[in-house]
């Protein structure tokens, strides 16, 4: 099934692509030696660049070394986390932000992956306003008490403001750039927008670089440059 196939770190742990995810995890760990960075936003410049795929495999890679990890799908416009994890999206972040209640009721445990997830819930009419609320800001701070890492999947930076809104709540951000899709000027605009939100841009994942090895089943390569994204 497609969702399970996307969990390459679990299904093909010895593959080069899984090793790339582990390298990404290691770079984040080195950047977080003081354990003061728990909230990380994953976004992209435009849609379809692989941000959700990267986020989920990174979360699983972190859980595999004993980290307590949670995913929150903040993309309340085109959510994909529930599809990739093949779990229900009947209720989630949107319902929590609108209706309140015990946050634990909105969190699902994915036992075989060792991670927790809050899916997006139903698509609201005002996603930016919900993310901009004090409830969302306070939720990020509250969850940091219980997790080693919280990874936030947000919409792309260029089309909407959601990622920039969330960037003011988190301690780090990683931007996904698809090889050959995003030009330098667009990448710079996305980077500048994130930085203007006050977050620390940890780096860039350069995604979907063609591999010339015909024997390789995978067609993507992930590159992570710690702290500074020189390519944009």
UniProtKB/TrEMBL annotation:
GO terms for molecular function: ATP binding; identical protein binding; non-membrane spanning protein tyrosine kinase activity. It holds the Pfam family AAA_31. The keyword Transmembrane does not apply. InterPro entries: AAA_dom (IPR025669), Bact_polysacc_biosynth/exp (IPR050445), P-loop_NTPase (IPR027417), Wzc-like_C (IPR005702). It comes from the Bacteria. Its EC number is 2.7.10.2. Residues 37-164 form the AAA domain. One of its GO terms (cellular component) is plasma membrane. Keywords: ATP-binding, Kinase, Nucleotide-binding, Transferase, Tyrosine-protein kinase. This is non-specific protein-tyrosine kinase. It comes from Dethiosulfatibacter aminovorans DSM 17477.
């Amino acid at each position: 099934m497609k969702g399970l196939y996307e969990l390459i770190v679990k299904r093909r742990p010895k593959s080069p692509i899984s090793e790339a995810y582990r390298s990404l995890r290691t770079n984040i760990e080195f950047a977080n030696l003081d354990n003061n960075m728990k909230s990380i936003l994953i976004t992209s410049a435009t849609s379809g660049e692989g941000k959700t795929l990267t986020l989920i495999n990174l979360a699983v890679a972190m859980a595999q070394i004993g980290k307590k990890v949670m995913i929150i799908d903040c993309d309340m416009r085109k959510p994909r986390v529930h599809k990739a994890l093949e779990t229900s999206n009947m209720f989630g972040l949107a319902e929590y932000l609108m209706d309140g209640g015990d946050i634990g009721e909105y969190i699902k445990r994915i036992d075989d992956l060792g991670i927790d997830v809050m899916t997006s819930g139903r698509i609201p009419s005002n996603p930016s306003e919900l993310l901009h609320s004090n409830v969302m800001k306070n939720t990020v701070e509250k969850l940091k008490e219980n997790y080693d890492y919280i990874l936030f999947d947000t919409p792309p930076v260029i089309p909407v403001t959601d990622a920039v809104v969330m960037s003011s709540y988190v301690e780090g951000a990683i931007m996904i750039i698809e090889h050959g899709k995003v030009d330098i000027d667009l990448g710079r605009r996305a980077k500048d927008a994130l930085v203007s939100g006050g977050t620390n841009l940890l780096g860039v994942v350069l995604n979907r670089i063609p591999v010339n090895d015909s024997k390789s089943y995978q067609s993507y390569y992930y590159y992570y440059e710690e702290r500074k994204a020189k390519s944009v």
